[in-house]
Design goal:
alpha/beta, globular, eight-stranded mixed beta sheet, about 300 residues, two-stranded antiparallel sheet
Amino acid sequence: VRSRSALVKAHSFGGDWTEAKLTVLREYLEAYRRIMERNARAQHFNTLYIDAFAGTGSRTERSKVYEDPEQSRDADEFRDGSVRIALQLASPFDKYIFIEKSAKHSSELHSLKFQYPERAQSITVIKEDANKALLTICESRNWRRDRAVVFLDPYGMQVKWLTIEAIAATKAIDMWLLFPLGMGVNRLLTKHRRPPSGFKNRLTFTFGEEDWEAEFYKPDPQAGLFDTEPRFQKVATFDGIKAYFLRRLGTIFSGVSEDALVLRNKKNSPLFMLCFAAANEKGAKPAIKITNDLIKKAR
């Protein structure tokens, strides 16, 4: 069994915004498990934690730069990713499902069974495309007896709207999604014309409809009489994109937190939006209240 420090040779990402994201997730999972433990009826459900795009289960971050170059090279600090956060909960889930397409990363996830022997029988690692795996999970399980929290943390715009619809259709899953607000969507919204077909298809793939185009673009008032084609101007703002996507979630989920956490870089530019939606009608109200409190605290 490899030591913890030897686990991830190179899976570095994030900064302060990553810490904020994982803190909110950790505190929500703790609250979720407390509710399930205290509620006698809830104890009859099997609870699942599903981590799509699970990576290696760990992350490293570059710490402060030291004056000594040797120290600087050795200054990568180990941090726990979402997978380990879930495994380390005092009150465990009944089952853990980790989805990772990369053979190398999924191999690291399998090693967690040796590091957390008390959870080994509860861990399932699926080496597959996250969208495909989630569709199978959503369609194959008995959601009358199962409840779950799913964490979607893609590297970009990989999450299909069809996948989100399948999660909502279970009426049993709480979904945390890292939405690529600035890192993906805004970059595809060209300023002085509507996006080319490749960009357009990717945006429709993300939003699940083509109405985003009318929302984010308006006819250019500077268009001339002799223009051969209509000219459009981008009117979308980060706030507008955020509001539009949350409205889309609201069309399929029982509850959606309107207080999504916008994660920014050091220049204060929006990178991602951490959003929450609850599929279960009875559980949506308390779940949204907990989420809103956590997000306010994280700001």
